[in-house]
Design goal:
The protein has one domain: outer membrane lipoprotein receptor (LolB), chain A, CATH 2.50.20. α1 packs parallel to α4. A hairpin with a 2-residue loop joins β8 and β9. It is an alpha+beta fold. The chain has a twelve-stranded antiparallel beta sheet. It has six helices and twelve strands.
Length: about 190
């Protein structure tokens, strides 16, 4: 289940990295731009690079965001699966099996969820409560590097990198503490 929550994040770059305090207006401008977008729906391709596998595993589907706190990841290939974050609960559905988890009962998971939710909502304060944030780039092409503040979270995830342009996220990459990583590439929805 922990991996499922980490994968919910992957629900993503430019030159010289600045700290959030030094970045000042650039990061504030990005957060305002992200906060102004109340709905988004993109196709995703997610690759998992695991030490145990000689090549990455891959999945694809649709990622849907509705402000302020609803995020749904519908995996279509290689097999159907749904992860739904709504308020303080996460529901995972695989086939007929469904499991709902209250995030308050699992505080170790909350930072994973908040990293993507706070980014999509443009909530800088929430992001900085949980992560050390580095920002680089401009409104046209930007990158956030998130490193967990809590050592306990750092035992699972070493770093999250999110990049995009304007209010559109392009890549989300998670570097796990054990050396594994995942990369989610986001694209505008293809016409039906």
């Amino acid at each position: 289940m922990r991996r499922a929550f980490a994968l919910l994040l992957v629900a993503g770059l430019a030159c010289g990295v600045l700290s959030t305090r030094a970045a000042g207006d650039g990061l504030d401008e990005l957060m305002r731009t992200l906060a102004a977008r109340h709905h988004g729906e993109v196709d995703f391709i997610e690759q998992h690079f695991l030490a145990l596998l000689s090549r990455p595993s891959e999945s694809s589907g649709v990622l849907i965001y509705d402000a302020p706190d609803r995020l749904e990841k519908r995996t279509l290939e290689p097999r159907a699966e749904s992860l739904l974050l709504s308020g303080n609960s996460v529901t995972v559905q695989r086939g007929t099996h469904r499991r709902t988890v209250d995030l308050q009962a699992h505080p170790q998971i909350l930072p994973f969820v908040e990293s993507i939710r706070a980014t999509l909502a443009g909530d800088r304060d929430a992001l900085e409560r949980i992560f050390r944030v580095e920002y680089s780039g401009s409104a046209a092409r930007w990158m956030l590097i998130l490193e967990p503040r809590a050592a306990e979270v750092g035992k699972m995830v070493r770093q999250v990198r999110i990049d995009g342009s304007g209010a559109v996220l392009r890549h989300v990459e998670i570097f796990e503490a054990d050396g594994d990583r995942s990369l989610m590439t986001l694209r505008e929805r293809a016409a039906p």
